Amino acid sequence: MNPYELKNKIVDRSAHISVIGQGYIGLPLSLLLADSGFSVIGYDVDSKLIEELSNGITRLRNEKKVRDLLLKHLGSRYFPSNDQRKLKGSDVIIVAVPTPRVNGTIELGMLMDAIKLASSTINRGGLIVVESTLPPKTFEILLIEIGKAGLKPGEDVFVSYCPERAMPGKLIDELISNYRVIGAKDPISAELSKILYECFVKGEIEITDPLTAEIAKLVENAYRDVNIAFANEVARICEVLGSDVRKVRELVNKHPRVNMLLPGIGVGGSCLTKDPLFLSWISRENGYSPELINIARELNESMPIHYVNLIDDFLRWKNSGSEIVCVLGVTYKGDVADTRESPAKYLIGELMGRGYRVKVHDPIVKESFGARFYDRLEEAVKDADAIVIVSDHSEFKQMDLGRVRELVGRDPVLLLDGRLIIDKEKAEASGFIYISVGNLSSLRRIKDEVFAFSETISKVPL
């Protein structure tokens, strides 16, 4: 098969496409290609996942459009499988497997296995596209691996890097509308990849070299992480100075060239928690340690522990004997069933490590990170000494605070708003001691009357 033949097969939708990895990106990508007219094999090593998909069940429960496309194309254009033989003879193979952070290092094992599989099953003259996030200079390693299979990139097989850009909760819309970057070392790989993605992408598609594409992908998330860290820094400043970060943010964002993000109890998700570190690690290996990125990541990672310390101070003073903490929400993003690197994981682990009994409720997922899970909000908040809102789910925004206050423990009861979704006046009128990220004014007000704070809080000026 020569490039002209492959181009025609893509244009007339007769190309045999396989997608390795059927997770957050691979599944919606497979379904979009099926919706564009291609026959698509959706491959994954997880046999249970493939069984679910074969029965029309997706783990992306909050992605209605994914579910709709799965039911529309299952068995006609989309074929889930964990049989490697089904990939044999593919004209196009897209690799969309995770490249996670594991024990402080980059785990590329799944990626390398996928590349070996793609190299052994792709048609000669076919196209391999990598969507998995790559640390800079990894694309070169992938080309070497493909060469080991007896294929010369740019001649026997065409290869490109097109990093995913999508946000959980809106995966289909984002994959269609976002601009895309394609990194390739030769013009034919770039052109074939662009023609393929133009089948469903409405956003701009730009061609560049692989290294630039690798760096650009990581910089996007590092930029967001740094800006969130700035917002969290301002929140911490407001806490010690006795101001309200919500009001400060409202005022500074009236400036035409300022867009301060919303602070929170922590940063979660797969991308923001690892991509800045990928960029930092590879840069450090090449002679420069990016201090700003490193400090921002450390600050964002410290936020859950900072608020555990506040809860700890409150419960040590209260000394009720039960010391129950209710955690509302374990996903990192509101109304999205994604718990990867959620701040709740670290907050719950720290609370339990300090000996507190932790009760968890989340209306979207059943995860509890080792604590006891409750299906009903009323059961979770019952007898609690402190309530912490970690996820900004719609259910929590609409809570009947008066009813919740009736169910919780003896006075005083702390309500820590980690996502700035509760009205302070309403919470206090319901009988809570209300504090939030960037506002500890309630504690300041009663400090001299009832509290003996630890060093952090005792330094808050009156």
Summarize the structure.
The protein has 462 residues and is an alpha/beta fold. Helices cover 45% and strands 15% of the residues. The strands form 4 sheets. Strands 3-2-1-4-7-8 form a 6-stranded parallel β-sheet, with helices on both faces. It has a 6-stranded parallel β-sheet with strand order 13-12-11-14-15-16.
Features:
19 helices, 6-stranded parallel beta sheet, alpha/beta, 462 residues, 15% strand, elongated
Helix content: 40-55%
Radius of gyration: 25 Å
User: What is the number of helical segments per DSSP (H or I, 4+ residues)?
Assistant: 19
Distance between the termini: 76 Å
- Sheet with the most strands, sense and barrel status: 6 strands, parallel
Strand content: 5-15%
Number of strand segments: 16
Instruction: Please mark out the parts with pLDDT under 50 across 5 or more consecutive residues, or reply none.
Output: none
> What is the approximate shape?
elongated
Chain-averaged pLDDT: 93
Main β-sheet, spatial strand arrangement: 3-2-1-4-7-8
Main structural class: alpha/beta
In words, what does this structure look like?
There is one protein chain. With 462 residues, this protein is α/β, with parallel strands linked by helices. It is built from 19 helices and 16 strands. It has a six-stranded parallel beta sheet with strand order 3-2-1-4-7-8, sandwiched between helices. It has a six-stranded parallel beta sheet with strand order 13-12-11-14-15-16. A two-stranded antiparallel ribbon has the order 5-6. Helix 1 packs parallel to helix 8 (187-197). The radius of gyration is 25 Å and the shape is elongated. The mean pLDDT is 93.
